[in-house]
Amino acid sequence: MSELQELVEEPTRTGAVPGVVALVATGGRREVAAAGVRALGGVAMSRDTVFRIASLSKSLLAAAAMALVDRGRLGLDDEVRRWLPELSSPSVLRTPTSELDDVVPAERPITVRHLLEFSGGHGMVPQFDAPVVVALMERLHQGPPEPQRTPAPQEWMARLAEIPLVHQPGRGWTYNTGADVLSVLLSRVEGASVAQVLADTVLEPLGLHDTGFWVPADKRERFATSYRADGSGELVEVDGPDGQWSEEPAFCSGAGGLVSTVDDWCTFAQMLLAGGQHAGRAVLSAEAVRQMTSPQNRAEAGNIFLEDQAWGFGGSVDVSADQPWQVPGRYGWMGGTGTAGYLYPSSGRVAVWLSQRELAGPSDFATVGRFLTGVARPSR
Q: What is the CATH code for 74-190?
């Protein structure tokens, strides 16, 4: 049994996850291992199983934005109020944990760059009981993705406009919500749904036929069922193949709404490693890739979302090796549905881990951590 196969077999034997598909690629060689089942009592996992990739969506959304920058459709320092008038005059909380009416005016406009680097001021803070986090979760459904519950973009933006920024634009780092704001922005810039924008800029040029915001009927037999662990550790079904992703949602969330496969996400990552090139054509410019995968912003020390690393566009960038799975220059992210995807410029490697048990929080890392630690070893 290969080392990779053992890494995917172990958590399925212990019942930590129902199933896993993992991939490690170096150059033109892809090693793939699968274990467990797509659903409890169901068929075995396979390489082409479709998963809810959650926050791995963010890097694909950022690539779509940078493709529009390459095409001259928008600029990084453009003010978003040109397309999002709801954000023309936002207010800012006096402190991240202030009540929602304890605010001051914004000192500068929000820009496209702010949305990409998560410095616009909309987003989650580590204090989950803070009034702003409660409002984001209750009014905008920020948290575990539930595509059919999120309101359509116009209503979503109207609700967002009523929630203050956590910090002044360009002067902090807040998680997640900026990607959904960016989703609406790209749609309005192009006069099309963000699903169409993503398909035009990223999915179709790369041939990512199993990646999208919903799963057509002819692919649902390959779609894994999603679970979470209850208080006793028992796995409880969250969503099945005919559930939340079975039809086009009103709001396509670039923050966490995509489904994909290990091979699709690997193809995307390898395009980034190749400086934006794929099959002899430029999907992104080399400069766009450089900006995506370079440190652009930092969270405050000890932020549980970012672990003292940096944020690029659409993913984190390791700037130190404080943990055994970290490699300076590594770019990628994890998803709350039990997913991880990273590329390693120093070694030309890609690592993808897709499972279907929701993580209990940022610290629920043990299973995927063993995989990423193995990938990080230079001798692998």
A: 1.20.58
